[in-house]
Design brief:
mainly alpha; 76% helix; 0% strand
């Protein structure tokens, strides 16, 4: 229950302030603790009550949202969590050997899917013209990471800068690649640079949408471009755009969710091995009577 409170709070903080890291971290203890309950607690009724209680806890952090979205988000999480629970229990009951990773895989997959759908559905009524699923600060963090990768291929260009600084980088990069420019005296090179810079700066501003002073950060400009484009598409296509947007965000989140699933499963497996080594969890053989078909 405590891990569910953390996830619910972190989800709300993520949607309001873009706190991606806190939301991502909160998911791990929630998944790990529930994975052990899935294979160790034999009563499905008890697990159903726990999952239902976790769903209610999530919804309490969004009680002001329209009820239709609360029912849809809660129902999606509850349905997928129970689906994963039943699949994992089916593997436990039909397998001859204990395989922790195999048993918990359906639970991890379905629960992560439920969390993704819950977050997306809850976000829809909170969508406004200044918010596109992640905050500008969160988008800036992602941009810094991606610009660092891009800079490995283009070390001359600093994408994590202002528009004017990037224009200077581009101008210097283009001129330095010219053999003729390199043969010019220093004073002439400076003159050519000063003449070329305004042209490239104006072209860059046009590409980025125009009406820019040049002091804006590239990440902020790109965020506004994405924001304006999404709001324009939403106004033009209405519900169809919402469905398409949900599909795109869901697929992107599932890609990240796959990493979360594997890391959670690995941590859970290590904890499981530690508990077995301490004999806190023991593996016992059972004699099972089963029915079989035969000719009388």
């Amino acid at each position: 229950m405590l891990s569910a409170i953390w996830v619910g709070y972190a989800c709300g903080d993520f949607l309001q302030n873009g706190a991606v890291l806190n939301f991502a971290i909160s998911v791990f203890p929630f998944l790990i603790l529930n994975s052990f309950e899935t294979i160790l607690i034999k009563s499905l009724g008890r697990r159903f009550l726990v999952i239902a209680a976790e769903t209610v806890i999530f919804l309490l952090f969004f009680y002001r949202d329209p009820q239709i979205y609360l029912f849809a988000a809660g129902g999606a999480f509850l349905a997928f969590s129970l689906w994963g629970e039943i699949m994992s229990r089916s593997l436990v009951s039909t397998s001859l050997e204990v395989n922790f990773l195999k048993f918990t895989a359906p639970f991890f997959k379905k629960t992560i899917t439920g969390l993704i759908l819950f977050t997306i559905i809850i976000f829809v009524p909170n969508w406004n013209k200044n918010n596109v699923f992640i905050s500008p600060a969160a988008f800036g963090g992602v941009f810094v990471w991606s610009s660092g990768i891009a800079q490995n291929f283009y070390p001359e260009l600093n994408f994590n800068s202002t528009v004017n600084d990037l224009a200077r980088n581009i101008t210097s990069y283009q001129l330095s690649s010219s053999a003729y420019y390199k043969t010019l005296p220093g004073a002439v090179q400076k003159s050519v640079f000063d003449q070329t810079l305004p042209q490239i700066s104006d072209r860059l501003k046009q590409v980025l949408g125009g009406n820019l002073s040049g002091d804006e950060k590239i990440s902020d400009v790109l965020y506004k471009i994405i924001l304006n484009s999404l709001n324009s598409w939403r106004a033009d296509y209405g519900a169809w755009f919402i469905f398409a947007w949900i599909a795109v965000v869901f697929l992107a989140s599932r890609t990240i969710g796959a990493f979360v699933w594997w890391l959670s499963a690995l941590i859970s497996w290590l904890i499981y091995q530690f508990l077995v080594a301490l004999n806190f969890v023991a593996i016992r053989g059972e004699t099972v009577t089963k029915e079989a078909l035969a000719f009388p």
